[in-house]
From TrEMBL:
InterPro entries: AAA+_ATPase, ABC_transporter-like_ATP-bd, ABC_transporter-like_CS, ABC_transporter_ATP-binding, P-loop_NTPase
Keyword Nucleotide-binding: yes
Protein name: ABC transporter ATP-binding protein
Record-level Gene Ontology MF annotations: ATP binding; ATP hydrolysis activity
Annotated coiled-coil segments of the chain: none
Tagged with keyword Disulfide bond: no
Organism of provenance: Sphingomonas rhizophila
Length: 312
């Protein structure tokens, strides 16, 4: 098994105000994966990224990038990392070409026009290479920020809320772009509070809440381990209320009384479905369809953020 490209151990951060932004975070990111760090605003996502990128100093713990400690071997570690921040900060009067080329030079990389051209073409920016930053749309500026971050050929790219404030079409373009980056061998870590972003793109998902990593795993495994299932029973006739004979299962009515919904744990020894259906038959409740639905990442995220951790 390959070594992690990023290894975070016992990372803590306490700001001067006394705010504890990170509380002993442990996280390994493997080469070539797309990892999504989910969490509400203020959960610690940006603080974590800022420490890895050397912008903020940790209070405790270690960060290692491809074997380089980012404190004792800062330059070697930082050169391997690219960062696309939330804020679009560029010189309005510079051209796209100059902006990206200058960023490469900042990392001590020799001039390489072919490399810059490759990056601009990959991000559909080649036709805009002579345009001034002030002439670009918000979506194009976002692409330039990614080009800047890629200019020194990092092995690990951080995208901090990459699609915040962009329209749905551009968001899908961004997703496609991230997949291409991974195909080119770049490891991608993105922070987001858009559930569909993680569900669409990530191989693994971590959920951070109040500075703690409260869940971590393969996306499908996380959904299976922490998600409940819902049995939906489509009734022939609508019910005004749930019959008291069904109280022990606690089902709820939806669709104006036409659907009876029962939540269950698919990993439990007994799901209770058999008993519920037998009781429904004895009550002569007619139904025309049965279906089960897996909890989405959204449901899991909401329960985790509110602290209702699944015991599984």
């Amino acid at each position: 098994m390959s070594e992690p490209i990023l290894s975070i151990k016992g990372l803590t951060k306490v700001y001067g105000s006394g705010q504890e932004a990170l509380k002993g975070v442990d996280l390994d990111i493997m080469p070539g994966e797309i990892f999504a760090l989910l969490g509400p605003n203020g959960a610690g996502k940006t603080t974590l990224i800022s420490i890895v990128c050397g912008i903020v100093t940790a209070s405790g713990g270690t960060v290692t990038v491809a074997g380089h400690d980012n404190r004792t071997h800062f330059r070697a570690a930082r050169t391997l990392v690219g960062l696309v921040p939330q804020e679009l900060t560029t010189d309005a009067f510079e051209t796209v070409w100059a902006t990206v080329s200058f960023s490469r030079g900042l990392f001590g990389k020799p001039r390489d026009d072919k490399k810059i051209e490759d990056i601009l073409r990959r991000l559909s920016l080649w036709d805009k290479r002579k345009a001034k930053m002030m002439e670009l749309s918000g979506g194009m500026k976002r692409r330039v920020m990614i080009a800047k971050a890629l200019s020194h050929e990092p092995a690990l790219l951080f995208l901090d809320e990459p699609t915040a404030g962009v329209d749905v079409e551009l968001r899908r373009d961004m997703w496609e772009m991230v997949r291409k980056l991974r195909a080119d061998g770049t490891t991608v870590v993105l922070t987001t509070h858009y559930i569909e972003e993680a569900e669409e793109m990530a191989d693994r998902v971590g959920v951070i809440r109040q500075g703690e990593l409260v869940a971590l795993g393969d996306k499908a495994e996380l959904m299976q381990r922490m998600g409940k299932k819902t049995l939906k029973i489509a009734l022939d006739e609508p019910l005004a209320t749930v019959p008291p004979e069904l109280d022990e299962w606690g089902p709820v009515l939806e669709d104006d009384g036409y659907t009876l919904c029962y939540r269950f744990d698919s990993h439990a020894e007994t799901t209770g479905i058999g008993g519920l259906m037998r009781r429904i038959d004895t009550l002569n409740l007619g139904y025309k369809d049965l279906s089960t639905q897996q909890s989405s990442l959204e449901d899991i995220f909401v329960s985790l953020v509110h602290g209702e951790r699944d015991a599984a």
